[in-house]
Design goal:
Elements (H helix, E strand, L loop, with lengths): L1 H4 L3 H7 L6 H6 L13 H7 L4 H14 L43 H7 L66 H4 L22 E2 L71 H6 L6 E2 L12 H9 L23 E9 L9 E8 L2 E5 L9 E4 L3 E8 L2 E6 L3 E5 L3 H22 L14 E7 L6 E6 L2 E5 L2 H6 L4 E4 L4 E4 L4 E5 L4 E5 L3 H19 L3 H7 L17 E3 L4 E3 L1 H10 L6 E3 L9 H9 L1 H9 L15 H13 L13 H11 L5 H8 L17 H7 L3 H9 L26 E8 L17 E8 L2 E5 L9 E4 L3 E6 L9 E7 L4 E6 L2 H15 L14 E9 L2 E13 L2 E5 L7 E4 L5 E5 L4 E5 L4 E5 L3 H15 L18 H13 L13 H14 L12 H13 L7 H10 L6 H14 L2 H19 L1 H4 L3 H13 L7 H11 L1 H4 L4 H23 L7 E7 L7 E6 L5 H11 L10 E7 L4 E4 L7 H6 L4 E7 L3 H10 L5 E9 L13 E7 L3 E5 L9 E4 L3 E5 ...
Parallel strand pairs: 34-38
Antiparallel strand pairs: 1-2, 3-4, 3-9, 4-5, 5-6, 7-8, 8-9, 10-11, 10-16, 11-12, 12-13, 14-15, 15-16, 17-18, 17-19, 20-21, 20-26, 21-22, 22-23, 24-25, 24-27, 25-26, 27-28, 27-33, 28-29, 29-30, 31-32, 32-33, 34-35, 36-37, 36-38, 39-40, 39-45, 40-41, 41-42, 43-44, 44-45
Helix pairs in contact: 14-17, 15-21, 18-19, 20-21, 24-26, 24-29, 25-26, 26-31, 29-32, 31-32, 37-38
């Protein structure tokens, strides 16, 4: 003790690893350890020792240093090995003297506080510790040794004499209290000179078994031996022969609690929790105990153990697993309850069994636990000491632990051991009752659990009752056991980790076992995971660093907003900040601010970094960074994220408020000044230089110290080094000049605040393809504030699970009710191609969330869209008007069948009636949505595939028919359903003269199919003569009206229409019909007029079709009124409407004349077609012979039935060209713009081609030089297919989409149906396929594309939706080109490449019809506008061709 007391305080603190306080002690003139003897908690705080763990460590060190030492001359006891089941004991003092009564051991208040009660017997002595190393096993190689007794030998009976040569410790009266823990008294032996040698430090909070032995001093004669540690505390290894002394009888050995890491042995939970422990009994009997686990010097706190030692412990083989808990202290440095007793006992069997179960039993101040093995980490059962009401002896070697509702019977190996267990249990129970102040407590947890409930645990047949309380997870068999406090095991969460496994399952992983739980639903699983994660955070939190940094008053509030108790910091800026500011600091990037937690990131906080925050901290840092902050720009604790982001960007990124250094702007002088400052202790100067532009790695000019960091190291400036290390990659503040070009809508959005619970699914990268069930939603607390949508595990969670910035949102969708398992759901799409699905049960709350989110990201200029009851709102890129070169950004909202758009070039939103579109198609690879109205065309582009696909599907659905009423159908510009308009037009052109029209019934299957097609999308259906029969179309129209939901006349007014037929006065009747017509909805009124107009035309041809007004009324009366036809009143209404059509519908003369002209033109066309002399509508066009020259042109009238062969003969006849035998004259379509030409097949009609020609195309008749070679190739080849490699290039379309990246080798297969494109020969799946019948192949490629060869062709593809593609193919040789082209023609035209000789002979010239003259409907010569207008007029209204006939 004297040597310890004279030790310099600096050396003593260094041994405690607390050398940072040496200066504080010396300033108070505390120079030796003896001077510190009177220190207390309060005096240490005044000295500057602010951390509770450090104060505790110093006080325990003083306790050890000034404990009662060993009297001079006292012999050292020699330890004696004991059996496995005999618990090792130790004394609180040095070895006893021969006459202990004359030298009683003094009592220590600290000991009394730790132990609480006295024992009836004095414990035997233990040998003194040598240094800080634990005692080792005894071996025969030591002097005086003898073979060790077998561990299985029975203990000595009570009262038996000790063996010869040993001294039994006499009994003591009065009895001393239980001694303190070993680490408090281990220095009472002969202390080594100077600080003890330290073993390697470990990061793990556990001890590591040692492999080497440590020699122990011999025991002088006459000194009683000390019993060794029980085998459970010692790793097994082969020792030399043990010493001969035998341990004293157990009856005289009271229990002394041990402070040793091995007291925290691994334990197991239930039968299912226990794993294989290996060969235990045999090895324990065959091998003597091994040395104790190596532990660090007791002067070191457990949280300072190094990583290296912990890793070595994991690598070193040991039959004892690592202990379950940190040795001696928890994460806060507080001592854990040490075991009071541990050993093997037999437990009473379960019901129906008579075989006792061997269990390892451990008792501490809180619980009595038993395990399958001393190696197990988790118990099979734990019994709270507070629930124990009585302990009784129940027979030989057995005792009973009695709780409030059940009893536990244990059996020891001897009565003495049984009595020791009883005494220890009684003392523990009495101490527990005394400290708790509530005798007879039930043992149930005093505090409310964070979460409790039943979970499935893999390995258990039944569900367990699981409780999350504080930093522990406890397992119980049922809720009743939880109420009583008797459980299976508990899990310390400071070593746990939670991971979700599947929809209902999650794993709680510890170093000793993985617990696989399963909840009843995904939502419940999410709540359990949240509760356990919070438990882990609570277990791992450590406030030591925070308390040290908060010791300075400026650091107790946030450096930016002033919030109290900030627990985050920027380690390069040396400022302490709150959580909300820390989030914005992270947004600045690590080059500006490196954010760390004061409580979680423990490895970061070195002593130098903490001292750096003491020297700089918020006070010094703000003197530089916030020297010029205007009061109007400062922020406070209640400021929003937007204000914080603005302020922090200005403060740290731009340095707007900083105090400029006098050398600012002079880089050379700044660097020179930095090199001088780092050699001093002026950290404020270094900070100002660095953040005013000095380079942290600037050259110093000193070869030995090339950087400022090296200069600081040479000068011994540790804090300067720390500051430079954290700012090596920091960027100095820079004011933004000019700024980046903003998007049209990248302006500050309105601030919206909303919060509440939402149900949420995990985010998705694909559209939702199936219904989401209720179990797939998780309940989350969501907040919308300052343009940030955050979702948390619960309203108590501090950190969000995720965040969505309003600026990243591009689309918001309100789903129809019951689309998913939650009644009301909505989707949020982001720029990063992610989809978030949220849900609510309350429709009102869902609408509030929708409005709030929409308002947070929709631009203020489109705010009027938010007033709509939208189904989908968002921003898209579009092209429209005359400028199609550059896409613009607009805002769109879909409401029913109306798409509202807010365009950049308009002042207000414009609606588009989707059901009235003339065309709705997709161009490119689902990249452009084309919407064609009567007066404009809008191209909507898909910048992001995910939300654009949703827009396309929603617009297509809204543009289609959605119900069985007239207003829900696709409509024309005149509000007539497109289905009705299509049928009426077809019957007008093809069925006015059909006998029995509307009276005959068509085929039921064809009628049903056609009606279904027209209802689905009438816009895409084209009724063609020959494909659709007139009676089928007429029957479709009738069935449509009969199946209407509300009828054409509506149920409300239907009876009024029929009552009007009873009026006798025709004028009064007509007036009533007009009144009733005005009461109908707009669509019904327009449809009725179109239908009666059609029937009025039909009855005009009653001579041919036999359907007069009366017959039509008989058919349509019951159909339109949806009646059975027995009452003619419905027919009378239809008959009156047809008869008085002009008066009722106010048809003027001009409209009547137009209808008459159309009917006349139709009849003439029908008559001409039936007689075979139809030449009306012939076109006169220019055809060239061999080349395009004025002298080679011929003006030819092209009838509708003229083929390319006939046109060729006509041109040759006019120019008197004689065809020779091997001459293959053909008509070519030449495209000058594409620099390509196409030989027309001899049977191809010319007139349709003329309609498609533009001003850059023309027709020319010339010889086809390659025809003979193509015929030879086709005749000689086998099969109808062609395959091979060609070079492929896809051209961009008019909207700038598609590929244009050069020619690439691709493998093609041309079959009789399709052209297949493969990436290479080995590919199994084609990249693209095109039907051959839709391909037009032109010879040649325009030169500006720089084709790799001159043998290529251009291919045009048009699908059924009239979407066009264009691409180019190049062959390696001319022969390849000829073969590919021949195969194309052969496949497209069924093998007939050239006409036979008989057809040539029968070909005759076409005679002109003088009756029609030379009417040119397409100008022979004219500008592009005139030609396009003429073609467009023909495509829009073919009847105009005959208006002047």
């Amino acid at each position: 003790m004297e040597e310890e007391g004279s030790l310099p305080v600096a050396s003593w603190l260094a041994a405690l690893h607390l050398e940072q306080y040496a200066g504080c002690f010396q300033r108070r003139e505390l120079l030796t350890v003896r001077d510190c003897r009177a220190l207390t908690e309060q005096s240490l705080t005044q000295l500057g020792v602010l951390l509770p763990g450090h104060r505790r460590r110093i006080l325990l060190g003083l306790q050890k240093a000034f404990a009662e030492g060993t009297p001079p001359g006292a012999p050292a006891p020699k330890p004696v090995p004991m059996k496995r089941h005999v618990f090792r004991v130790s004394t609180a003092a040095a070895p006893e003297q021969e006459h202990p009564r004359e030298h009683p051991e003094p009592r220590s208040p600290l000991m009394e506080l730790d132990q609480g009660a006295s024992l009836t017997h004095h414990p035997p002595p233990i040998p003194p510790r040598v240094g800080c190393r634990p005692p080792l096993k005894f071996s025969a190689s030591l002097k005086g040794g003898s073979p060790e007794p077998s561990p299985s030998a029975p203990p000595a009976p009570r009262g038996a004499s000790p063996p010869p040569g040993t001294t039994r410790p006499p009994l003591r009266t009065p009895l001393p209290p239980l001694p303190a823990k070993r680490h408090q008294l281990e220095a009472k032996g002969q202390a080594p000179q100077g600080p003890p040698e330290l073993p390697p430090r470990a990061a793990s909070h556990r001890s590591t078994p040692a492999k080497e032995g440590v020699p122990i001093a011999e025991r002088p004669p006459g000194v009683p031996p000390c019993p060794p540690s029980p085998p459970l505390l010692l790793p097994r290894s082969k020792p030399p022969a043990p010493l001969p002394p035998e341990p004293p009888p157990k009856a005289t050995v009271p229990f002394v609690p041990q402070f040793d890491d091995s007291d925290y042995e691994d334990s197991a939970s239930e039968e299912e929790l226990s794993g294989a422990v290996g060969e235990m009994a045999e090895k324990e009997e065959a091998e003597p105990p091994a040395p104790r686990s190596l532990r660090a010097n007791s002067l070191d706190s457990e949280d300072e153990l190094s990583e290296e030692q912990g890793e070595a412990a994991l690598r070193s083989p040991s039959p004892h697993p690592a202990p379950a808990f940190p040795s001696g202290t928890d994460m806060e440095g507080s001592p854990l309850p040490a075991p009071l007793r541990a050993g093997w006992l037999d437990k009473n069997p379960p019901q129906g069994s008579y075989i006792y179960q061997r269990r390892w039993v451990k008792l501490d101040a809180e619980h009595l636990c038993y395990f399958d093995s001393e190696k197990d980490a988790y118990s099979k059962r734990f019994i709270p000491v507070s629930s124990i009401s009585r302990i009784a002896s129940v027979g030989d070697q057995k005792f009973e632990v009695i709780t409030n509702n059940r009893n536990f019977v244990f059996r020891a190996e001897s009565d003495a051991e049984r009595n020791e267990w009883i005494r220890t249990l009684q003392q523990a129970a009495e101490e527990r009752r005394r400290t708790s102040g509530s005798p007879g407590s039930s043992g149930a947890p005093a505090e409310l659990p964070d979460r409790s409930g039943f979970l499935e645990l893999r390995g258990f047949k039944h569900k367990l009752f699981v409780v999350v309380a504080g930093d522990k997870v406890l397992l119980y068999k049922n809720a009743e056991d939880y109420r009583l406090g008797i459980g299976i095991t508990y899990i310390e969460m400071n070593v746990g980790n939670v991971k979700e496994v599947d929809r209902r399952g999650f794993d709680l992983t510890t170093p000793y076992r993985t617990f696989s739980f399963a909840a009843d639903s995904e939502q419940e699983k999410e709540e359990w995971v949240e509760a356990m994660q919070q438990s882990i955070a609570e277990a791992l939190s450590n406030s030591e660093v925070a308390e040290r940094i908060w010791a300075l008053e400026p650091n107790c509030s946030c450096a930016d907003c002033g919030s109290p108790k900030p627990d985050w910091a920027s380690i390069n800026l040396c400022v302490v900040i709150c959580k909300r500011c820390a989030g914005e600091h992270r947004g600045l990037g690590p080059s500006i601010s490196k954010v760390r937690s004061l409580k979680m990131d423990r490895k970061v906080w070195t002593e130098e970094l903490i001292q750096l925050f003491h020297h700089i901290g918020n006070a010094v840092a703000n003197q530089f960074w916030a020297a010029n902050v205007p009061p109007s720009e400062s922020i406070g604790p209640g400021s929003g994220s937007r204000e914080r982001r603005r302020f922090l960007t200005a403060k740290y990124r731009e340095g707007k408020y900083r105090r400029y250094h006098p050398l600012f702007g002079n880089q050379e002088e700044l660097d020179r000044a930095l090199c001088a400052a780092v050699t001093t202790a002026d950290l404020a100067e270094t900070q100002a230089l660095l953040f005013c532009g000095a380079a942290a790695s600037c050259p110093t000019g000193d070869p030995q110290c090339p950087t400022p960091l090296a200069l600081a190291q040479r000068s011994g400036q540790r804090l300067q080094m720390e500051f430079l290390l954290h700012n090596r990659s920091s960027e100095p503040p820079r004011l933004e000049v000019g700024g980046s070009e903003e998007r049209p809508y990248s302006v500050p959005l309105p601030s919206v605040t909303h919060h509440g619970f939402l149900y949420k699914t995990p985010s998705m990268a694909k559209p939702i393809a199936e219904r989401k069930g209720l179990e797939e939603f998780s309940r989350r607390w969501c907040t919308l504030q300052d343009g940030l949508l955050s979702y948390y595990e619960s309203e108590r969670s501090a950190a969000p699970n995720g965040e969505l910035r309003a600026q990243e949102m591009v689309c918001l969708v309100h789903n129809a009710p019951h689309t998913h398992g939650i009644e009301n759901t909505f989707e949020v799409y982001t720029e990063s191609e992610r989809l978030y699905l949220f849900g609510l049960e309350n429709p009102g709350s869902a609408r509030e969330w929708l409005k709030s989110i929409a308002k947070s990201f929709v631009h203020p200029c489109a705010e009027e869209l938010l007033a709509l009851d939208f189904e989908r709102v968002g921003r898209l890129h579009y092209k429209g008007g005359l400028n199609l070169e550059r896409a613009k950004e607009g805002w769109f909202a879909l409401v029913g069948s109306t798409l509202h758009g807010r365009f950049q070039d308009s002042e207000r939103q414009e609606p588009l009636q989707l059901r009235k579109l003339q065309e709705l198609s997709i161009q490119g690879d689902n990249e452009v949505l084309v919407l064609v109205e009567r007066r404009r065309t809008l191209y909507i582009q898909g910048e992001r595939k995910l939300d654009f696909l949703g827009w396309v599907q929603a617009i297509q659905k809204a543009a289609g028919s959605s119900g069985d009423t007239l207003s829900e159908q696709q409509l024309t510009e005149s509000d007539v359903p497109l289905l009705v308009d299509r049928c009426i037009d077809y019957i007008t052109q093809c069925g006015l003269t059909s006998e029995g029209i509307y009276r005959k019934s068509g085929q039921n299957s064809k009628t049903t199919s056609l009606l279904e097609m027209l209802r689905r999308d009438a816009r895409s259906v084209r009724l063609k003569e020959g494909e659709h029969h007139v009676d089928d179309v007429a029957n479709t129209l009738k069935r449509f009206f009969r199946d209407l939901g509300d009828g054409l006349f509506t149920r409300r007014w239907g009876q009024d229409w029929m009552r009007a037929t009873a009026l006798e006065d025709e004028e009064v009747k007509i007036t009533e019909y007009r009144r009733l017509l005005g009461t109908l909805p707009t669509v019904n009124r327009a449809t009725l007029k179109a239908l009666i107009n059609h029937l009025f035309r039909v009855q005009r041809f009653s001579g041919e079709n036999q359907m007069n007004t009366h017959n039509l009324a008989i058919v349509f009366g019951p159909t339109l009124f949806q009646m059975d036809g027995k009452d003619y009143k419905a027919g009378r209404v239809v008959e009156d409407l047809i008869s008085h059509y002009v008066k009722i519908f106010n048809v003027n003369d001009q409209e009547m004349k137009k209808q008459q002209d159309e009917i006349t033109a139709i009849m003439k066309m029908r008559e001409a077609a039936s007689s075979g002399t139809q030449q009306a509508g012939d076109f006169i066009c220019t055809v060239y012979l061999e080349e395009k020259k004025t002298e080679a042109e011929q003006h030819v009238k092209i009838p509708a039935t003229m083929t390319a062969e006939e046109l060729t003969f006509e041109i040759l006849h006019r120019r008197k060209v004689v065809m020779k035998e091997k001459d293959y004259w053909s008509c070519y379509e030449v495209n000058e713009r594409e620099e390509a030409e196409r030989p027309l097949h001899y049977s191809e009609k010319v007139l349709p081609i003329l309609h498609c020609l533009g001003t850059e195309s023309y027709l020319v008749v010339k010889k086809q030089m390659a025809m003979e070679n193509m015929l030879i190739y086709l005749a000689s080849r086998g099969g109808d297919c062609k395959h091979g490699m060609m070079k492929f290039r896809e051209e961009r379309n008019l909207l700038g989409l598609g590929l244009s990246t050069g020619f690439h080798d691709r493998y093609f297969i041309l079959s009789h149906r399709c052209l297949h494109l493969y990436r290479d020969v080995r590919s199994h799946k084609p990249e693209k396929e095109w039907p051959v019948r839709n391909l037009r192949v032109y010879l040649g490629i325009k030169k500006k594309l720089r084709p790799p060869t001159c043998w290529g062709f251009t291919v045009f593809y048009e699908n059924e939706k009239h979407e066009k593609q264009q691409w180019y193919l190049c062959c390696d040789t001319q022969a390849d080109l000829r073969e590919w082209f021949a195969t194309f023609l052969h496949v497209q035209h069924g093998g007939a490449l050239w006409p036979s000789e008989s057809s040539k002979v029968r070909t005759s010239r076409w005679q002109q019809d003088s009756r029609l003259g030379n009417i040119s409907l397409i100008p022979l010569r004219g500008n592009e506008s005139e030609m396009r207008n003429s073609v467009a007029a023909f495509a829009t209204d073919p009847l105009t061709l005959l208006h002047n006939v």
